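Marked as duplicate of an earlier ticket. Keeping the data here for the record.
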Amino acid sequence: MGLETKVLNSINDTFESKGLQPPKVWFEYGTLWADTENPMGVRFIKESIEKVVISNHNNEVEVTKFEPTKREPWTQWAFDF
């Protein structure tokens, strides 16, 4: 499951565990957007993101090197957090 999906699921779980309707949230070009007027909802969203990012990756950045191939003759690096 990708990071974006985990974050969205975490947000929904957080709101539902508090008996609240989750706001509309979505990712677009790597940014999470949320439609909410509730400052408490913003806090719940932030905590949900931190729970996924920090707990799943121990607050570390994992670096992976992809070697060149015939089809893609360049080196690429992936940074996971």
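See parent ticket for discussion. Helices lie at 3-17, 39-57.
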